[in-house]
Design brief:
- The structure holds two protein chains of two kinds.
- By secondary structure, chain A is mainly alpha-helical.
- Chain A is about 75% helix and about 0% strand.
- In chain A, helix 7 packs across helix 8.
- Chain A starts with a helix and ends in a 6-residue tail after the last helix.
- Chain B is of the alpha+beta class.
- Chain B has a six-stranded mixed beta sheet, sandwiched between helices.
- The chains are: A mainly alpha, B alpha+beta.
Chain lengths: ~290, ~400
């Protein structure tokens, strides 16, 4: 070991010197990545009076009027639109998440633990649905939702989002359930527990990290979704926030400052969630990679 | 408590027969150890008793009642798993109480049972801890506690000590023995470790390739192994087995019973068979057989008395004894030269002898050895032991 050290030190030094080069290369890439975000912040802070034409990404003003306009919007009847739309977004995203997780967790447990005819086809079918662009299902979904009388309703959108989140969530959760030792369930069976008890009291509590990840993904995809919401919702009071953001880009006039401010406001909850769940996320994403 | 009876019990996976028509009884209050190498079907058998594997054919009775179609929860059994199988998100107390809560026992009764078991297993200070905060030995004690609180008719142990280090294994072995002593419970215990089998069992059942080889007390299993498999599987280091040819020895006067005296000739090992071995040989008659001798049943002797010569290849001084591994020395006897190569290859198979600790032979030495009086076993060509002693 001792005679290895003199050679090891210069190697480490050399490695340190070479590390500067990739970092120098990374600086412009970071700048390119951050530029649009910084530009949106700049636009949002430029106020409602009009955007500057400068390409520089840093704010030249600190005007919060765009934020207050976005938050304070009301319709002709005096309904607080922003509040209603925020509520719509929250309710739809939360219901989608809950419904998606309930359906996906029970489906995933079935796929993970039982052998039944159609198991493989079912799993591959779920995977196949993820391979087609979502836009493909837009028209059939519209027909279905219309037939159900759920156009322009929260329930309609929740139904569509939850069912489209189920395949992804099922695969993620099945992957996690596969890593849980079967001994635990067999032990519970001998303890006298039913399958439902095992699922509720053993499997679900142990799968908290995976459920957190899948819940976050469903929440985010519902929260950010635009195309389906734009298609199925028609009255302003039933809009979700992404649909409202799009409305700031009108045919005749583009309200960039409002667009940017609303975008930032919509991003905040997701950022906060990510920050809060960061530890679970890493645990959940790598779950199953390492036993223990 | 209850007995467990396995009648012609069979397990198949498709065309693969994993357990072949097993007949076995675990008596009421008995600790029966099912032992065998990996893949011999012992765990599958245990899981069939537990209800975790379906029984392909045959009858399982627990407490005299046919249990084939009973769900695991209705069999009144508790199982201790090799992996402990503790619920990671529950405290030790909750782990032990889980099964009782599921069965909706009175909370005061649950508490009493858990605390009694915790006291007996010295888990009291750990009741509020989660399994991940426990050592391997503590986890296994919790797993045992979880079984004990259930007060089942039958306990099943599936290689419960395999995950522990050697020192802990000894400690836990004592715990299991204490548990059995205290509860006098019916226990079916599966292990591949013959030391566990020998030390814990009231009776041992040895399995190999899905077939039951022998069921008997540890003493009988060791002293009168039913066949070459049991002979080599139980006892460490394993029994030496040498293929020999039995032939009547005309140069020696007839034996006590009046029949001829037999010689065993295995090329490298040659001896006149006396006592029980002689009687066994007489029973078997001339022809091929296998001679089995435990390492401690060989003793060094003078060159002219040698029945076997061992060329030393490895010496293992263990303090209390020394094991010498080697090959039977090449062509020590005139007869060996006349044998074909394949036979010589076979008889030159590694042999082991236990010597007293002061003996330190050097590598390459040739040690002349003979059998201790009354030692050795003869196995017929089909591997079954020839028992001429009249013992069971």
């Amino acid at each position: 070991m001792n005679d290895a050290q003199p050679t090891a030190q210069p190697t480490a030094k050399r490695r340190g010197r070479y590390a500067i080069v990739p970092h120098l290369l990374l600086v412009p890439f970071t700048f390119v990545t951050l530029y649009p975000v910084l530009y949106v912040v700049k636009l949002a802070l430029s106020g409602t009076s009009g955007a500057t034409a400068s390409a520089a990404p840093w704010p030249t003003r600190f005007d919060l009027s765009a934020f207050s306009t976005v938050v304070g919007r009301t319709d002709a009847n005096g309904t607080w639109l922003f509040g209603a739309q925020l509520w719509n977004s929250l309710v739809i995203s939360l219901l989608t998440t809950v419904l998606g997780i309930v359906l996906a967790a029970s489906a995933a447990y079935g796929f993970a633990r039982f052998e039944f005819p159609g198991r493989r086809v079912g799993l591959l079918g779920f995977l196949a649905t993820q391979m087609f662009p979502g836009i493909l299902t837009l028209i059939p979904l519209y027909v279905l939702i219309e037939a159900l009388g759920l156009l322009d309703t929260t329930a309609g959108l929740v139904l569509v989002y939850a069912t489209s989140a189920v395949p992804f969530c099922t695969w993620t959760l099945k992957g996690y359930f596969d890593t849980l030792p079967k001994d635990l369930e067999e032990s519970a069976i001998l303890d006298g527990a039913s399958r439902l008890t095992i699922f509720l009291r053993i499997i679900l509590p142990l799968s908290a990290p995976a459920i957190a990840v899948t819940a976050l993904f469903s929440f985010m995809s519902a929260w950010n979704e635009f195309v389906l919401a734009h298609t199925f919702l028609s009255s302003e009071a039933s809009f979700t926030l992404p649909v409202q953001i799009r409305n700031y880009v009108g045919d005749k006039e583009v309200q960039w400052a409002l667009f940017a401010a609303a975008s930032l406001i919509v991003s905040l909850p997701v950022m906060a969630l990510f920050y809060a769940l960061e530890r679970h996320l890493v645990g959940g994403l790598t779950a199953g990679g390492v036993k223990g | 408590m209850a007995s467990v009876e396995l009648e012609h019990l069979q397990k198949r996976y498709g065309d693969t027969l994993v357990v072949a028509s097993l007949d076995l009884q675990v008596r009421d209050g008995e600790l029966l150890v099912l032992v065998g190498p990996s893949g011999c079907g012992k765990s599958t058998t245990l899981r069939m008793v537990a209800g975790l594997e379906e029984i392909s054919a045959g009858t399982l009775k627990i407490g005299g009642r046919v249990a084939n179609d009973l769900s695991p929860r209705d069999r009144d059994i508790a199982m201790v798993f090799q992996s402990y199988a503790l619920y990671p998100h529950m405290s030790v107390y909750e782990n032990m109480a889980f099964g009782l809560r599921i069965r909706k026992l009175d909370p005061a009764d649950i508490d009493r049972r858990v605390r009694d078991a915790a006291r007996f297993l010295e888990l009291e200070p750990l009741l509020e801890r989660r399994p991940k905060a426990l050592s391997g030995g503590q986890r296994q004690r919790v797993a045992m506690g979880r079984a004990v609180v259930r007060e089942p008719a039958v306990f099943l142990f599936d290689e419960p000590l395999s995950n522990l280090d050697a020192k802990l294994r000894v400690q836990m072995r004592i715990e299991v023995a204490r548990l059995h002593e205290r509860l006098r419970a019916t226990i079916l215990y599966v292990t591949h470790d013959q030391v566990e089998a020998m030390t814990l069992a009231d009776r041992i059942a040895v399995m190999h390739k899905g077939v039951l080889q022998q069921v008997a007390s540890p003493d009988v299993i060791y002293r009168q192994p039913a066949n070459t498999f049991v002979a080599t599987f139980i006892g460490s280091p394993a029994m030496n087995l040498w293929p020999v040819t039995l032939e009547a020895d005309a140069t020696v006067a007839p034996g006590a019973a009046g029949g001829p005296t037999f010689r065993a000739d295995g090329g490298c090992v040659q001896l006149t068979l006396k006592g029980n071995l002689g009687a066994a040989a007489a029973q078997l008659g001339p022809g091929p057989a296998t001679l089995g001798v435990r390492p401690q049943d060989l003793e060094p002797c003078a060159e002219n008395e040698a029945e076997l010569r061992l060329r030393v290849a490895v010496v293992e001084p263990l303090g209390a004894e020394t094991y010498v591994y080697g090959n039977a020395a090449e062509k020590p006897f005139a007869a060996a030269s006349s044998r074909d190569e394949a036979t010589v290859e076979r008889v030159a198979s590694p042999s082991i002898v236990r010597l007293d600790p002061q003996t330190r032979p050097r590598l390459g030495d040739v040690i002349p050895l003979r059998l201790r009086a009354g030692a050795g076993h003869l196995f017929a060509a089909d591997g079954l032991r020839v028992d001429a002693s009249g013992a069971p």
